[in-house]
Design goal:
Blueprint: E1 6-10, H1 19-22, H2 30-43, E2 48-53, E3 81-85, H3 97-103, E4 108-114, H4 116-129, E5 133-142, E6 146-147, E7 153-154, H5 156-167, E8 173-175, H6 177-180
Parallel strand pairs: 1-2, 1-4, 2-3, 4-5, 5-8
Antiparallel strand pairs: 6-7
Helix pairs in contact: 4-5
Length: 183
């Protein structure tokens, strides 16, 4: 893989450990896979970007004044860039992710984090629309069961499959951690 491929780690924050707030989650191996990706990128001196959701909603555990806003311990060391945002896409954060990537001649990135079908998927879609080659690391993402407008609950695994199906060969190439991390 090209050394200029960035790793975007989206919203891997402590608030997402609160099952009472979010509900049932899938992929308990998500954080270990993210840690492996971060270690691999650092070992190969590739750019690592952490994205943090700083919610402006009154009751959100992701508000900057809440302990859940903190990044999880698996995100060790300092990133090359920390983007903070209040919306789903990391491309609408501060500082300007698109500008930072382009200034460095980076035209592709691998993306992982929380939650699969919200901020990670939105960042992947927008990145593709901006012309980036996107690798969506599915087993380094996790999400939660969610009720639809008709009240029917889709499981986290069903939502993950829907995301992978919608993104692959359209907005991104869906890959696994194993494909990106050397033995």
């Amino acid at each position: 893989m090209d050394s200029s491929v960035a790793l975007l780690v989206v919203d891997v924050q402590q608030a997402f450990d609160d099952a009472e707030y979010w509900g049932r989650r899938n992929n308990p191996g998500c954080e270990a896979n993210i840690a492996a990706l971060v270690a691999e990128w650092r070992a190969r001196e590739r750019p690592v970007v952490f994205v943090r959701h700083d919610s402006d909603e009154d009751v959100s555990p992701l508000r900057p004044d809440q302990p859940g806003n903190a990044l999880k311990p698996e995100l060790t060391g300092e990133p090359d860039l920390l983007v903070t945002k209040q919306v789903n896409s990391a491309f609408y954060g501060d500082p300007d992710l698109d500008g930072w990537l382009r200034e460095r001649g980076i035209s592709s990135f691998a993306v992982c984090g929380l939650t699969t079908n919200h901020c990670v998927e939105t960042t992947a879609r927008m990145g593709a629309n901006l012309g980036y080659d996107v690798l969506f690391v599915l087993d380094a993402c996790a999400t939660f069961d969610r009720a639809g407008p008709d009240g029917t609950v889709m499981t986290a695994d069903e939502l993950t499959r829907a995301t992978a199906t919608s993104l692959h060969d359209e907005f991104a190439t869906v890959v696994s951690t194993r494909e990106l991390v050397s033995g």
